[in-house]
Give the backbone structure.
Amino acid sequence: MGLHLMTPTFFVTRQIPQAGLAHLAQAGTVRVNPHDRQLSTEELITLGGEAVGWITMLTDVISEALLERCPKLRAIANYAVGFNNIDIAACTRRRIGVSNTPDVLTDATAELTWALILACARRVVEADGWLRRGLWRGWQPLEFLGTQITGQVLGLIGAGRIAMRVAEMSRGFHMPIQYTARHPNPDLEKRLAARRVPLEELLAQADVISIHVPLTESTRHLLGSGQLRLLKPSAILINTARGPVVDEAALLEALRQKSFGAAGLDVYENEPRLTPGLAELPNVVLLPHLGSATTETRTRMAMLAAENLIAMVQGRRPPNPLNSQLWP
Ligand code: DGY
């Protein structure tokens, strides 16, 4: 990676917490998207074409065609742990460094996973809406009965940082843990007595299933109609990872048929659009991709993205490289 002797220009594709922008400003000139919305590809090129380093959002699609038209670009720091929005191979071919923001959002995303689990189990959103509509007539012995979580089987799809944290948080609920992952996670097995099982077994046995895999070609539609059919009638399915891991049309159909208990979703197949009909169902809790959305976490993400970008533009290995072969 070449050293840039002139003051570099950075481009940030959305307004992010000020701390990150201030950090970036110590190392170069910062240009931020002036609009309060996502930019089109043309706008990204027009506004960012002169910059050597970009901080991108998970909503920015960084394709080979875009890179082709930004010859000055040397580094991209994605403001997310997920990086399925970036063609990493194309960046590597052009010697453009890419980084992400792992670790700093693990707690926040695990906490939101638990918010969805409990909201589904105890019908929190449904009951809140009912009360607000003025329908409550006083305590009833059989009203809004939910499911107890304590002692139920937790099934984790994926065994990375966020899955681990969700598992740790489950200890207070005394939940036996099963997980499915390409490779065993000895820490998860030793510390939390988790048992690695095939996906089909986990889907059929777990009471609460939570998805924590990245979106890749092998995880796209990992759960389709065949897999959803395996869920227990009372099962709760949570997705705080990436929408396309679940076939949303199949999910809608399964929820319509009430073939399993409830779903808690923070991510969707075609964000920000939802499959028509999903928002009308009572047995699903829907959030607008808020996994990392706490003030503390977003500030840490901004600082980390800035650190990564500065390092890459200065020719140093960043803390969180995604194409580490560029910094031997
Ligand atoms: C991520 O970082 O990948 C989350 O989905 C959003 O912060």
